Amino acid sequence: MNGRIKEMNNKLRILIAEDSEDDALLEILELKKAGFESKYERVETFEAMEKAILEKSWDVILCDYQLPQFNGLAAIDLLQETGIDIPLIIVSGAIGEETAVECMRFGACDYIMKNNMSRLPLAVKRELKETESRLKRKRAEETLRESEERYRTILQNIEEGYYEVDTAGNLTFFNDSVCQILGNTRAELMCVNDRQHADKENSQILYQVFKKVFITGEPSKRVDYELIREDGTKRNIEVSVSLIRNTSGKPIGFRGIMRNVTEQKLAENKLLQTLESLRKSFSTLIQVMVSVVKTRDTYTAGHQARSANIARAIANELGLPKDQVEGIHMAGSIHDIGKLSIPSEILSKPAKLSEIEFSLIKGHSWSGYEILKYVESPWPLAEIVYQHHERMDGSGYPRGLKGDEILIGARIMAVADVVESMASHRPYRPALGINAALEEIENNKETLYDTDVADACLRLFREKDFKLEGECLN
Known about the structure:
This protein has helices at 3-10, 21-33, 46-55, 72-82, 97-106, 120-146, 152-155, 176-182, 186-189, 200-216, 262-296, 298-317, 322-333, 344-347, 355-362, 364-372, 381-387, 408-423, 434-444, 451-462, and strands at residues 12-17, 38-43, 60-63, 88-92, 110-113, 161-166, 171-174, 223-228, 234-239, 242-245, 251-260. The chain is built from 20 helices and eleven strands. Helix content is 52%, strand content 13%. The chain is globular. By secondary structure, it is an alpha/beta fold. A hairpin with a 4-residue loop joins strand 6 (161-166) and strand 7 (171-174). The strands form two sheets. Strands 6, 7, 8, 9, 10 and 11 form a six-stranded antiparallel sheet that branches. Strands 2-1-3-4-5 form a five-stranded parallel sheet, with helices on both faces. Helix 12 crosses helix 18, helix 13 (322-333) packs across helix 18 and helix 17 packs across helix 18 (408-423). It has three domains: 3-146, Rossmann fold (3-Layer(aba) Sandwich), CATH 3.40.50; 154-260, 2-Layer Sandwich (Beta-Lactamase); 289-462, Hypothetical protein af1432 (Orthogonal Bundle), CATH 1.10.3210.10.
């Protein structure tokens, strides 16, 4: 950790937009436990927040989403209008997933649920580092502009390419590294258009970047594109672009830094291939778990497979990201793995279970969590398995979670599990049928089942002709 962040740990300047003094103190206490000594100010109104931002310096802003006079989106908009670079983190106790995503899209750095405050120190630490990185980049660019003439000689000796072009994109100045990157001599490159070494697609990418910089006057972020060298070989290039103005402020060209990132891209691609290999290995592990369950209890295996298919269909119907859908399907495939700890004669008992036997059955979600909690996964599989019998009103088990305390994956699994269980044959009763299952979901949405999830499930079966498929339906 760099020096500035260490100093911040000793005296972190925090602006808290929060109408509850108790909640603000809890946030400060959580940061203090993580080693942050804080100096903070709490505001409740839009005007007070604006005044605090403009008149004082802050390292981070913690903002409740819903305040009496304004909300988190208004706070984000206010901060962006000032142009001051301060990380803003939404800290809320009643914010849905869609609202959280919207806040992130509009500029919030993160969102923390008040019932999970342990994430706050890590989020603050990360955003302090990000702010420091942005500040360093900004200072570097300002120094480059202010010291242009003084550094021209030095630029010839740096590894990164430095270039200048006129408003038409023709090279007017460049260092030797640009020649090495492009594979041309200095004489060959002088007055050559910067897009000459790119194909049609990449040429258009460069054109749009330069056009935006010219119109807005703002430097671009680093842009990746592929160039074709004089010898026909290709290179992955990272380039930055900023506007050059004359003494009267008129744009006369562009300047920037060019880096050959071909090896970095190759390494990234190799890493992606490795990650894909690990993903396949993890998928194989899941299949092994499924096979173990099937070997011991074919009913549970069939139930898991069909429930997983329903869960995947619901997740797709809700428009969740592809990767999240995959994780929910995997969790569904093993959501009853905890039943391995239950005697098979109880699982297959063709009569009503005793109170003790049912208590053992209810323990399967905890057992499944214990089996999976140390399995490294890109998805919260263990927690979904742990929560799939929780209900929105808190009447579920094993922890009595309710509402947003329950992961979206577990809310989906809860509906999928009930539909499959009721529609299919059970050891102690015949199948009740899909209509009875859907009536259960419809009659108890909002209370037991997430409304959006329930509605998505009902649409699938009633409007989109989704069918239960798999073994042991009857």
